Each structure stands twice: as structure tokens, then as C-alpha cells.
Amino acid sequence: MAVTIKDVARLAQVSVATVSRVLNASxxxxxxxxxxxxxxxxxxxxSPNGAARTLKRRQASALGVVLPxxxxxxxxxxxxxxxxxxxxxxxxxxxxSSHHDARGVSVAVRAMRxxxxxxxxxxxxxxxxxxxxxxxxxxxxxxxNTAPTQGACASVTVDNVxxxxxxxxxxxxxxHRRIAFLCGPSRNADATARLxxxxxxxxxxxxxxxxxxxxRGDFTEQGGWQAARRLLETTRRRPTALFAANDAxxxxxxxxxxxxxxxxxxxxxxxxxxxIPIARYVTPSLTTVRVAIDVLGxxxxxxxxxxLATPLRGGDACRExxxxxxxxxxxxxxxxxx
Amino acid sequence: MAVTIKDVARLAQVSVATVSRVLNASxxxxxxxxxxxxxxxxxxxxSPNGAARTLKRRQASALGVVLPxxxxxxxxxxxxxxxxxxxxxxxxxxxxSSHHDARGVSVAVRAMRxxxxxxxxxxxxxxxxxxxxxxxxxxxxxxxNTAPTQGACASVTVDNVxxxxxxxxxxxxxxHRRIAFLCGPSRNADATARLxxxxxxxxxxxxxxxxxxxxRGDFTEQGGWQAARRLLETTRRRPTALFAANDAxxxxxxxxxxxxxxxxxxxxxxxxxxxIPIARYVTPSLTTVRVAIDVLGxxxxxxxxxxLATPLRGGDACRExxxxxxxxxxxxxxxxxx
DNA sequence: TGCGCCGATGTAAACGTTTTCACGCCGACC
DNA sequence: GGTCGGCGTGAAAACGTTTACATCGGCGCA
Lengths: 338, 338
Description:
2 copies of one chain form a homodimer. Chain A has 338 residues and is an alpha/beta fold. Chain A is built from 12 helices and 12 strands. In chain A, the strands form 3 sheets. Chain A has a 6-stranded parallel sheet with strand order 2-1-3-4-5-11, sandwiched between helices. A 4-stranded parallel sheet of chain A has the order 7-6-8-9. The first copy, chain A, has a two-stranded antiparallel sheet with strand order 10-12. In chain A, helix 6 (102-112) runs parallel beside helix 7, helix 8 runs parallel beside helix 9 (189-204) and helix 10 crosses helix 11 (247-259). Chains A and B meet through helix 4, helix 5, strand 2 and helix 6 of A and helix 4, helix 5, strand 2 and helix 6 of B. Chain A binds a DNA duplex (30 and 30 nucleotides) through residues 4-6, 14-18, 20-21, 24, 26-30, 33, 48-49, 51-58, 114.
């Protein structure tokens, strides 16, 4: 059916070995035979079968990417960063999404065995131990934004704690004392790290961490909206600032507060985390913590290539952190004088 | 190194054939041997080598996705739609991006040969003929949003012409007569189709198509900003409405007009095309034409699977169109009385 | 009792490459 | 003038599966 290296060899009147040598430049070939082979290759529009090549070479020139989801700007940015690095190294990307639990990750990963050289796994909602169980033995893996895994496993994470800290600093420097925090899903590693950062920074600033100011959320705009409503209804002494664990929730909160007739930032400051593109366009534009998601992806891929080149010895879990920086826009200002 | 089916066979004291039969349920196996094989498989954490499997089975259980880029929400939505269908069918996705010209597409496609069962190609900036030259012979392919290809090649496109028409209808029904159009890149198939739709709808409404009202653009926010500036500077009789060929440009134009002190939609209506998420958040929120991008991806994948199941006979180029619908928000209103 | 069939298994040949090994040829070197 | 080494080439053995074919025991049926 499809044209193989044998067809080329037959027509060029050489052996398959010679064709292979020509195509891979893996050994010297006489110029005229080389030309003949190339001509036939073009005529037949031959291109080598990837599976066979992978099988023999024991190298797939592809990276596996396992994601929990593909929804929203976050993943497209992440993929773009990964793709950039991969393409540089001449590797393709085998992506698989919608794997929220360890089982799902496990299935995806098994399906990739033998077709990729390494794995990039993002599973913020899977615990480190069950993730370790789902990952294959032989395949170099870099995890993204997951809780620290024991064992020799490289990983890249966002500096969530640092990002939360710098945001709290900013709010405190503006004069805020009562700062509410809107959490993400409790099993999400990013969400918990941001909450940790909030708590630590508040304490460092000498401010009490009032648990009634820590609101439940789920990383969705809808959830942010609801949380803001609850905040307005139930709290007696209102906070002067609301720090949402991600931008989507901050946007939802902005909407809810706006609907309730509040003036942002006059009546309350609202800030987020991530710096998704929408953050620039809402009114008022959202002060937030910028995470260069494409850089996160690129760094992870680069790290994976490094591990691929020189496998890391047992024990030394290689860990990289990408920085998060404050982006000041118009959704926060000094609190009203009491 | 890695554990193979032979290791499993040896430890389970059966032949590799039996192991294969157990794992694929391809032939009856006695219950006790079956259990033994499964136990060893689990113990060794064996999973079959994808490359070898693909090679022998002549089916990769993967789809190739070739994209011009990965930038922005558009591609993440598209991928999500594709992934949904693919996952349903138990297929993985091999993606490759940043292929703007025919050569790039050709390289990407050759690299996929033998590792995918079919191809989803999006290359709006590549002409139909050179695309046809870049595509392989044997591999079933569905093109997305590309100019009609001759030859038996399935494709899915957005109803750009219809979308432009309904938008013009809407503007005309509000009372607009002088409607400017902000073009996309001239080699982009979507962009030219939208321009065609604009022209046709204007004519159908009995309005003159004034070429000074057709502005050059490039699908970027920056480009939309510049075009709006030019519009303000050079045109004598201003249009009462500006129809941008995509939302990114509409947002840029909105910004420029706002900076120039204009009131939208009071002084001029601005509308876009695509309905990217940001469209809801700009002020005023953007009236636009909604394209269900995830549906586009899903339909393309579904079509590819259909072709895979029953290859289409020569000649009958299978073509699908996904609808585009008007979304009315706040960026357009009736024109000021002259 | 013998024939044929079916169920359970093993053997070995594919699948399309890459790569090792061997071979013949030529020029160079002692 | 013979050995040596390198260059160009072909034959064949992998790579890890799946699967066609063969084998063998047991069962139903004439």
C-alpha cells in the first residue's frame, strides 16, 4: 500500500541499507548513487515510517504532554511554551487531556509508552503519592505545578507563595489591614500554595489571619461571583481588599460587587492571580500577579530535554521555580479612611 | 532495559502469543493462565510498546494536528474540540504548530507519517494548490478553514460569508448606511471570505461598496488600533459603523476610538467577528459574530473518523460548514441623526 | 471406534526501519 | 609487490508487537 524504503531501494537499484544511509546521512555514499536515491525518494514522495523508525532507534522524537484539561487561555499558553522548546529540539508533541485523577493519568501515560521519549505531566489535583504510582518507571518525567513528589522526579512550579507575598505587601503598603482571601479548590496544589503564601505574608506583616476572611472558591468566574455575594451578605466588618487566588474568580467578584453598586477600588480593592489576558480589559483593569505561563511550559520542556540528555541520578529531585511578579493596574487603591 | 512482552511471557511461563491474546482479548485463553499473565503484567507494570504495536497493526490510534500557531484562545478551543472527539474514539493527538507556509506543513506532515491514522490540517494562509502538494497521498486528511481544495479532500469551514451577512443585516436594520470594513491579512482564507460576505451583503442591501471604507488590517489588536487611527485622520465623511474582520482588531479599534474621545456606540458603532472571551469584558461589550470554535474542531475530528471508517471515493470532496451567529451586546446602536 | 471440530497454546513470520558485520575494491605505504 | 586501511556497498539481524499456521488433547457424533 504505502511506499516503503524497499520500493525506493528497488527502483534505485541499491539495497535498503544504502537508501537509509542516504536519507540519514549516516555514512558516506557515492555521489551518483546518492543523487539517484534522492530522485526516486522525491518521485515516490517517500517518507520513512515513524513507527518503524521509533522502534528501531529507540527514540521517538516526541514528548508526551498530559494535562488535566484544555480549557481557557492557560493551557494554550502552556502548550505554546512547550511547543516552542520541543520544536527547537525537533520533537513533536503527543498531547492528552482531561485527566483529573491518578487513574486517568495512568491510562494516558501507558498509552504513550513507546511513542514518546519523555513526559510532561500537569496534574495539580492529584496527590504526589498517587501520581508517583501512575507514572512509569523508565520514562523521564517532569511534573508541572504539582505538589512535591518524592523520588527522583524533576519538576517545575510557579512561585505561588512568593507571588501571594508580593501582592499582600503591595496591599499593605497601600494601607489595607483587613484583606480577604478567596481560595481555589482545596485539592489543587497551586491554590493551596497561594493560600499558604497569603497566610505567611499576613503574619509577616503583623496582621491577624481572620478565618472569616478566608472564602471558599473553585477557580471559576461563577465561583468568584458567588463568593463576593456571600462576602457582601454575611460579613459584618467588611474587608477593604479582596485577594482572589486566580483572575477568573477576581473577574467574577468584580462583576458581583459592581452589580451590588459598589465602586471598585473606591469601596473595595480587588486583585487576582495569573494575569490572564482578560485582566487588562475588565473595568477597572485588574491588579494581579503575573505568571509567565508560556515560560513555565518552555522551562519544563527544557528541563525535560536536560534530563533526557543526562538522566538524573537517584535522590536529587531537580526542582525549578518560575517567578511571579506584581502587575499594578486600576482595581486597587488605598482603603477609605474608616 | 524497558520491560517487554517477552519478560512477561517468560515469568508467566507462556508464549508471547498468549500474553498478547490476554492483553488484547483477541482469542480465548484459559482462565487460570489469563489470571497468571495479568498478575505478572501488573507486577512488572508492563505496558506494550506503542511503536511496535503501531507498526504491526498498521494503525496508530492517533490523529495528527497541524496548526499555523498556538497563540490565543482560538487554538485552545479548537484543540479542545478535537481532543474531545479523539478521546471518545480512543485516539491520541500529535500536534505540531508554527507552520505558516506550505514547506512547513510538508515537513510537519512527513514527520507524522506512520505515527498517525489521519490528519487535521489548518493552514488558512496556504493556498489550496500548494497545500495539496504538501499533503501526503495515503493519509486521510481533513482541512480546517482553508480555501477549497480540489481533489478528494474533506474539509470543515466556518460560515464566514453568512456571518458577515447577518452582521451587515443587523447594522442596516439599525439604520446604518456607511459601514466601514476592517480586513484581515489578504492571504488568509477566513479574512477574504469575511470581506466577500461584507461586499455581498452590502450590495444585497442596496448600499454602495465604497472602497475607501475598506481598511487594511492584520487580525491583531495593534493593527486594529492603527486602522482606527487612520480612519479618524483621513476619511472625510466618517462611517457610522466599523465592522472588524475579527474581535482582536475590534478591541484595538475600540481602544483607539476611546482614546480619541469618541463615544461608542454613540459616535460610532464597532463590531467584530469570532466572539473571543474578551469580547464580553471590554467596555462597551462587543457585538460580534459567534463562531463555536470547539464545535469546529469536534466536527473536523468527527469527519476525519468518518473518512477513516469509509474512505471517500475520488471526486466527492466532502465539505462541512459550521454556522456563525450574531451576538448582540453594547458596542453598536443606531447611528446619530445626520 | 474413528473422524472431525473446537479450544488452548506454541512457533515463527511478518511490520519498516537502522545498524552491525562482512566483503570487494582501490590507493598507499614499507 | 604484498599488507593495510578506508571507502562504498549488500546481507541480515535486530527492535517489540500481532497473527497466521501448526499442534495437540478432548469431545460429540456416526
